[in-house]
Write a structure and sequence with these properties.
By secondary structure, this protein is α/β, with parallel strands linked by helices. Helices cover 39% and strands 11% of the residues.
Length: 521
């Protein structure tokens, strides 16, 4: 067994969220297509599979607006694997053929999956035996967050999809008598959601083992903030700036900048860092402990918020009226290391990077991020994203899930009137810097990333395929139309694996014995 790589090894990987995988059920999942993707990574000599958060998504299908900071998304459960395990009949898997390709059909897919998941649960309930004892052991390991989460989801079923802040007062405030009654009355629904978390965990661990056997590590993403309408805020109101009605006197955001003179009012609850510190950051320890069980490395989203964050009055319509407040700094991570040991974390240090941010990242020894799409503006003697300024202890990206694709980025330069900023000078600078490659500028940027001194190079799958803006994953600031891009079936070919694999060999990023069986990819 090869095992997962380390962040201090010279490696490369792809960014692809599981919902972006192809498959017959409307969105990607942890089923057979995930294994085929792992085969492709191995065949291409790639060592990392980076994902977005894998928690149950909330509003607008965003993985960054999740209903739990701990639970796995039940919509990622592979129905084909449930059938292979005997929990579903094969005929239950039939779905409209058009669901195999095109963008994710989140709403329709969830309705389809919900029916099948409940069928599987009914069969499980009748089976009992050793499997039920396995679920009990799973509950014993994860009860600290699981009990609250499954109760939260059961109450969501009863009270509709509205936020928990609209529930009856006794449930909002978690009065013990009311919770006890709910847990008795909704016992079957609570068992159902426990079953879903058990199945997610089981399928996840199987995929993780498969990847490790091929020398592939899984890289996750932990956002700094959590959603207001999530089980954690409902279960632990004392950890957040919130009144007894569930209202937020202050919310998260970012200050005005050159791209948005109003700033961004994100609306997330803000942590009461003094309360977290008094507990030894116990909630954060549990959060990272579970994340590090699932992933071999983790990208810490909005790392700059650990030094200072933008606090916006809850009544404000925009973020202009906000102010900077101090984050927990090194104290949080020192406690995490004491409890969890070494922390294979990557600092997403993009945005307003102050000397304090850099000092904290360097003190903690976390690699930072450099993004090639940001490399060609400003003074070339100082821009840290230019490859000749890269540092070994860092991660180079062509772009992130928030960026346009490389092809879209180049094309947008010719439509400056509809662009958030005139990027034509940046494109001219990029063309002077980058040596053209056969197949398009995206291959030139892939070579640029692979040749960087940075230990780790990651590219979104869309950039590997040379796709345009239609394949963009997220447009920050837009509430709808994001997160739905999917791989076309069989888009990741043997020829593509061979080409990127050659680059990995040339630039010393290839896995040993990288020519794995590609299966049917």
């Amino acid at each position: 067994m090869m095992g997962a790589p380390r962040l201090d090894e010279r490696t490369a990987g792809l960014l692809l969220h599981p919902t972006s995988l192809p498959g017959p059920h409307g969105t990607g999942d942890l089923g057979r297509e995930a294994y085929r993707f792992a085969d492709f990574l191995a065949a291409a000599g790639l060592r990392w599979w980076q994902m977005l958060p894998v928690h149950p998504p909330g509003a607008a299908n965003s993985p960054y607006d999740a209903q739990s900071a701990f639970a796995g998304s039940p919509w990622l459960i592979g129905l084909d694997l449930l059938a292979e395990a005997g929990w579903l009949d094969a005929e239950a898997l039939a779905a409209p053929p058009e669901w195999r390709k095109g963008p994710a059909r989140f709403a329709a897919s969830r309705r389809f999956r919900e029916v099948r998941l409940r069928r599987a649960f009914a069969r499980f309930e009748r089976a009992g035996g050793p499997l039920r004892r396995e679920v009990e052991r799973f509950h014993d390991r994860h009860g600290s967050w699981l009990d609250d989460y499954v109760t939260f989801q059961a109450l969501k079923r009863v009270h509709g999809t509205g936020p928990w802040m609209r529930w009856p007062r006794e449930l909002r405030r978690r009065e013990p008598a009311a919770l006890g009654e709910v847990r008795r009355e909704l016992a079957a629904e609570i068992r159902y959601h426990t079953f879903l978390q058990f199945v997610f965990d089981r399928q996840w661990r199987a995929l993780q083992r498969y990847c490790h056997e091929r020398g592939i590590g899984l890289m996750g993403d932990v956002p700094l903030f959590v959603s207001h309408d999530c089980a954690d805020v409902w279960a632990h109101p004392e950890l957040f700036h919130m009144d007894r009605q569930g209202r937020l006197p202050v919310v998260a955001g970012v200050p005005p900048d050159a791209f948005n003179d109003q700033g961004q009012r994100w609306g997330n609850p803000l942590f009461r860092w003094d309360v977290h510190a008094a507990t030894g950051f116990a909630w954060w320890s549990e959060r990272l402990r579970l994340a590090l069980e699932r992933f071999d490395a983790i990208r810490l989203d909005h790392f700059i918020g650990f030094t200072r964050y933008w606090e916006v009055p809850g009544s404000a319509k925009t973020a202009r009226a906000g102010r900077f407040r101090p984050g927990p700094g090194a104290a949080l991570f020192e406690q995490l290391r004491e409890r969890l040991g070494p922390l294979p974390l990557i600092a997403e240090d993009l945005g307003i990077v102050t000397p304090e941010v850099t000092a904290l990242r360097e003190r903690l020894g976390f690699p930072g991020m450099v993004v090639l799409q940001f490399a060609f503006g400003g003074d070339p003697r100082e821009n840290p994203y230019l490859p000749h300024h890269h540092q070994r202890h860092s991660v180079v990206y062509t772009g992130t899930h928030d960026n346009d694709t490389l092809v879209g980025w180049f094309r947008e330069s010719s439509r400056a009137a509809r662009s958030p900023a005139d990027r034509r000078p940046e494109i001219r600078a990029a063309r002077r810097y980058v040596v053209p490659e056969r197949g398009g500028m995206h291959w030139a940027f892939i070579r640029l990333a692979w040749s960087s001194v940075a230990n780790l190079a990651i590219i979104p799958a869309q950039d590997l395929l040379g796709l345009g803006s239609e394949a963009r994953m997220n447009r920050p600031g837009l509430a709808r139309g994001n997160w739905s891009w999917r791989l076309a079936p069989r888009a990741l070919t043997r020829a593509l694996a061979t080409r990127v694999g050659r680059l990995s060999v040339i630039y010393g990023r290839a896995a040993p014995c990288s020519r794995a069986d590609m299966g049917t990819s």
